Each structure stands twice: as structure tokens, then as C-alpha cells.
Amino acid sequence: MARMKFICDTERCIECNGCVTACKNENEVPWGITRRRVVTVNDGIIGQEKSISVACMHCSDAPCMAVCPVDCFYRTDEGVVLHDKDICIGCGYCSFACPFGAPQFLSTGAFGVRSKMDKCTFCSGGPEANGSVAEFEKYGRNRLAEGKLPLCAEMCSTKALIGGDSEVISAIYAKRVSVRESNGRYPSTDIFGWSTAYGPTGSPAPTPTPAAKIPGAKS
């Protein structure tokens, strides 16, 4: 069985947010919920700007599953991490555990009561019957059951975001990396833009500013 994954190529992403719009439209995601978003570092700095499309990465050892007190999460045969909204109690533990900020909550009422959690489903619906009205209303379109891939990846104009069988998309990305290395674009140690986000490999860690020098800090 294929294991489904996303890969976003930071060398191709142009921050158009087409993937964000495609996800919202295809799954009729309510306002206030963003299953996918584009993050940019060094915004506006010519030659240093990098963007990446982020959503649930459907982890092999998902921390959201580990912390959920009611075990509403489950993993499909394709490796997609989904959840049952009928079981979810809206506690928010998963939002604190997820390193990608995938779990989303709508705050309702005067006291900001959390709703049921919502996140990227890899366009594979939920526990209800495939293609049913109940499934669409709770989780969105089940494109995988229709033999299709997530619309966010299909609509990416530069093919920066690719999704599908992990072996297939890894091979596609590896070929891109090989071509760029042969053209001297970047060394193999920086294929995911590590130095862009954290500085060159081996650079010293930043020195924290003493509290006494921070304006307004108490001595």
C-alpha cells in the first residue's frame, strides 16, 4: 500500500497561495480555519526569500495521536492521519503538540469556547462512508476515494507542492536536487534551506541579550 506524503520545494514556491485557496474551495473550509498556509522567511530580501507551503504532514509517529486524551485520531492504510470529530472534545492538546500548527479550532461564544478540531485530511475524508454527505460536511472532499490526489498539490502552478506515494515524490525531489547540484545551485547539505532559516552550518549559536539591557525589563 502506498504511503501518502507531501513535499514542498522551497526553490519553486512563489508564495502565490494557490494551494491555500484550492484547499478552502474544494473542502468548503469555514472562515477562521486554515488547513494549509504559506510561510515565508526573509520576506522582501532579494535572493534570500524562501517560502514553503505547510499543512498536516501526516507523521509516521504523530505527536497529536500521542497526546489526544480521547483517542480520536487514527491512521489509514495509506498512512494518512485522520480524526473522528464525533469523538473530539476540543481540548486543544493536539494543537500544542503539533510542530506544524496543523490542528485548527474555531472559537465561538463570549468565552471563546473551542469547536471540534479541524485539519488537513490529505483530501481523504473521514470515518463516514466514502463520498457521503456527512463525510463532506465534516471533513471535506474525499478525493483519494475517487482516485485523485489532494487539490492543493494538483493546483500548484510551479509544482513546488507535490503529494502522493512517498517513494514517487521522493524520487521526483531527489532528481530536482541532483540537477541543481550539477548546476552549482546549492550543496547537498542545504537542500531543505536549513542555512536560510538557521544560518550556515557550524555557525555559533546567538548570544542571548542580558535582561538588564532589554528596554523595560525589571532588574
From TrEMBL:
Cofactor: [4Fe-4S] cluster
GO molecular function, one term: 4 iron, 4 sulfur cluster binding
Domain 4Fe-4S ferredoxin-type: 4-34, 47-78, 79-108
Region (Disordered): 199-219
InterPro entries: 4Fe4S_Fe-S-bd (IPR017896), 4Fe4S_Fe_S_CS (IPR017900), 7Fe_ferredoxin (IPR000813), ET_IronSulfur_Cluster-Binding (IPR050954)
Assigned keywords, A-Z: 4Fe-4S, Electron transport, Iron, Iron-sulfur, Metal-binding, Transport
SUPFAM superfamilies found in the cross-reference section: 4Fe-4S ferredoxins
Biased composition annotated in UniProt, kind: Low complexity: 210-219
Protein name (Swiss-Prot/TrEMBL): Formate dehydrogenase
